[in-house]
Structures
1.
Amino acid sequence: MKKNNLSDFGLIGLAVMGSNLARNVESRGFSVSVYNRSFDKTEHFLQEFKGNFKGFESLQKFVKSLNRPRKIMIMVAAGDPVDAVIQSLLPFLQKGDIIIDGGNSYYKDTQRREAALKEKGILFMGCGVSGGEEGALHGPSLMPGGSKEAWKAVKPILSKIAARDFSGGACVAHIGNDAAGHYVKMVHNGIEYAVMQFMAETYEILRTVYKLSSGDIAKIFQKYNKGKLQSFLFEIAVPVLTKKDDIDKKSPYLVYHILDKASQKGTGKWASLDALDRGVTISTITEAVFARFTSSEKDLRVSLSQMYASKKKIKAVSRKKFEKHLENALYAAMISSYAQGYHLISKTAKEEGWKIDMKEVSRIWEGGCIIRAELLHVLNQAYQKTKNRSQHLFALPSIAGIMKKNIQDLRFLVGNMSENGVSLPAFSSALYYYEYMTAAHMPANFIQGLRDYFGAHTYERDDKPGIYHTQWE
Ligand SMILES: NC(=O)c1ccc[n+]([C@@H]2O[C@H](COP(=O)([O-])OP(=O)(O)OC[C@H]3O[C@@H](n4cnc5c(N)ncnc54)[C@H](OP(=O)(O)O)[C@@H]3O)[C@@H](O)[C@H]2O)c1
């Protein structure tokens, strides 16, 4: 904090995220200049929030109001608006100034922007921000990637505004070069899709097989939230499931009237497409994306449901016993989905030349972000004991212990509920991922034989090196 009339930090984009982040930075003792394309939002912001803020209608004056090296965070809609803002800033910036894109930008855009700005001597960081509106104001989880020099300059500010981890440290770390931060945020969102799909499948089992009301299901989430499944998403399940309906007073819960079509903004799809390109399995995340697509086919589903009678639901075990199976199955499935996301990050990091420490990623996800959970601390501690911080989660001894203890419950859940006609795309794929990843043998030998038969695609043998082709008939 320099003692002159210039601001410590600049923020462009005063929608929900930007205005809350600006307030967060200011509340930690920094002076903040703000700018928004439509000036009325800037005026409104300055009227509503009193403090060490300066607002500008002219971008040039905004830039001039900042201490050097200038630290400017952009919080605008992802895509072309980010390029538009960067282009309009360029004439006023000087070498060594820093731009931080805190939006949900596609990581390849971040790579392109970082390379182009480096040539001009401008330091660019792509920074994943998670925690929504509340997080932005009180402490988000921050995933900055890009120039190390820029990181050194912004670290004092980002460390103060970030959420706290389980040991009281700041939920922020330099993730890696160029787009590493935005990549990690994309996978974070993918895991978020998977966790929410597990929760939705849990809800559906309890609603249809055990015939529980939304209020009773909320009690189960509340109970789970006190144990190993403690997490922000389980915590908010309770108000979402118990909120009364203001419009239909006869309906006990609002959730009964919410249309069963889930939307998305695309980060889960990006993660899935990238995993397909890189040849890495993140089937649970992708199943969660597909489940949202299928949910959107409401009219077709309704008409087909009239042709296909639904299967009669049969309870296999008492509710009390089932709740225990379900808790353990959820735990194993969650770890499986994290293992998939972490493996994607580690493989990409290797290909892109980023050095990503998965212990640090787990630590900065302990607080502030949407997937914050007790489990993240377990993952953090599991990596603590190894020097190889990009190892597959299943290879860590403490995680292997947890998986072995809980996997039978996941097998039971998938088998039993499939018989009951409940769709479990996320639970099933989490189980199959585990089964295949921990299997010394897969039936891919048969696939190779078939491919060689119809297309002379050749195969390798398990007893001798070389490439083989067989005349099968
Ligand atoms: N909402 C969340 O919970 C959340 C969480 C994490 C990350 N994010 C990410 O954070 C970023 C900001 O999110 P948000 O929800 O606060 O805002 P948003 O609705 O995504 O974007 C609105 C902001 O972008 C500005 N903008 C749009 N087009 C522009 C252009 N061509 N040039 C200059 N400015 C332009 C708008 O300015 P005007 O007022 O002039 O239109 C406004 O300030 C997004 O990338 C979002 O994905 C959001």
Note: The domain at 449-473 is CATH 1.20.5.320 (Single alpha-helices involved in coiled-coils or other helix-helix interfaces).
2.
Amino acid sequence: MDLSVGTPVDPTPELIQAALRAAANAPGYPTVAGRDDLRAACSGWLARSLDVHVEPSAVLPGIGSKELIASIPRMLGLDPGSRVVIPRIAYPTYAVGALLAGCEPIATDEPESVDDATLVWLNSPGNPTGSVLPVQRMAEIVAWARANDVLVISDECYIELGWDLEPVSILHPSVCGDRHDGVLAVHSLSKRSNLAGYRFGFVAGDQQVVGDLLAVRKHAGMMVPTPVQFAAIAALGDDEHVAEQRERYRGRREILRTALTDAGMRIDDSAAGLYLWATRSEPCWDTVAWFADRGIVVTVALTATDAQVAEVAARLSAA
Ligand SMILES: Cc1ncc(COP(=O)(O)O)c(C=O)c1O
């Protein structure tokens, strides 16, 4: 029972597959900026789902948010040795992207404590803790960053998967006012639309920074394949499949949360996203070994089928 990797296991919705198939004849190069209707779809989804208002020209698509995260420090031409702040407990790609650009990753949840920071990554809802940054805290970080000429980029790939809390985008007016200067958000369709195999993500926010990224990418590439652009337009235009997928994860989360707490574990954070951040109040490798003895590989991700989740719960209950 593999709960160790957050990879979607449910089918890509049929309307998205159909859009991909219908666009299979694609002899020409796609543009780096993406189709106008794709950028409009991203902008429309941000407005409809997150109450975030950006012009389509302040959106830039890419082949997956992992690739965007890994490449942004280099694409922005950050000076080697620059300090890139990443969350204390974080998805590894923030550090890898910084290192690839010759920068120094600094892991802390207090970016204000870092002298000479150039870029700050936030991740809310977070992987792997499922923590959600309060609006007030994000607003403080943005205000500090603007005052110190630091770019803040928030990875929001789990933003539609809020359980106990409603996550808010860094681009929302309650966080950054009615301007997006110095602020970007990274989004992904991988989890909300079961589209991880297609590779699609986008950045949106500060028009100037988006323009800088576009200018470099015109020659560095990472263009989104045309059929995937059409699939993304279909995915961004439909809310129903997202609601259905949310309910699947909500059910799995409930079963796993109950099974873990019944087995004596404490769950911290985990208010949103695809992970349960659980502890048996012992060194974590001991806990991982305890799970392994029962044939369960962790971290505790919700991305397993209903049958596997039920089996995990049964094994934990037998323990
Ligand atoms: C926090 C976080 N950001 C980004 C990604 C990458 O997603 P993708 O490249 O599929 O858009 C993941 C994948 O698990 C993730 O957990």
Note: Residues 14-238 form a domain with the Aspartate Aminotransferase; domain 2 fold (CATH 3.40.640.10).
